[in-house]
Amino acid sequence: MLWQKRATRNRAAPLARTILAAAAIAVAPTVARAAGPATLALVPGITTDAFYITMQRGAAAEAKKLGYPLIWQGGASFSPETQIPVLQALLAKQPGALMIAPTDTTALINPIRQFVQAHIPVISVDTTITDASLLQSQITSNNTQGGEAAANAIAAFAHQTGEVAVINVKPGISTTDERQKGFLAAIAKYPNMKVAAIEYDDDSPTNAFTETQLLLLKYPKLKGIFGTNVFSAEGVGKAVVAAGKKGNVDVVGYDAEPDEVNLLKQGVITTLIIQQPAREGSLAVQYAVDILSGKASAVPKTIQLDNVVATTATANDPNVAQYFYQTQTLP
Fold it and tell me: pTM for this one?
């Protein structure tokens, strides 16, 4: 199946390896920085995801415009166990600035602290960590608003009545935690609506498919399901179709990767909440250059970008389609 060809963001390695890798960062050797513009490093949550590929495109275009070399390096799964060794290798190269999408709100604190102690400024993109004092800036989408928009879309479909559900990734990821929080708060404003269940798929569309099948059996009158990221949404949509409930159970998803967009155009997913990863990458480079140029005071500590809402009816509108994610990085 198509799902088996795509990398997922599962945590496959034991926590002990994460701890050892973090310790290795602490003793990484210091390397003199080469003359000329400082190298900027962008570490995504996962390198194979169209969201982060689109982010790389925005960052690479901005870095080229400003005359700064850019390193794009990350793991093949969304996990601290794969991300921390990448940071270890990058710290030894002493980049001028680090831009990173942390794969866990707490596990990445110590590795990021090592960069700060080496006087390398750090900017978070997309996701973040709980210790914001280590970050020069945090760039992300307005995930709470995105969750609210998802809830309102399902409420409109369901005429503001009935049971709904959430298929999320896992607790401890800042972005999807906020999306769920926004969704729950918005649904609570509809007195005749109820969240029947919240399930977690560990960032696997196969798990999301299975969880959705079980939900549809347990709650046969379910009106809608919110999939909080690309894999959740794809699994939910395909399970709804397999159960013969397309058009009866509303599916709202997040992001705009190619497979999701196809499901949107088919009406399997009726609404997508789309982020602006290219803009996040571009801003991260701009802020990093400002910091390196002595203009740190001009860099905002936090910025939240607006989401774009796409529906089946607007999927072919060029003003919407321009926000769909890309699958090829820039050199």
Answer: 0.84
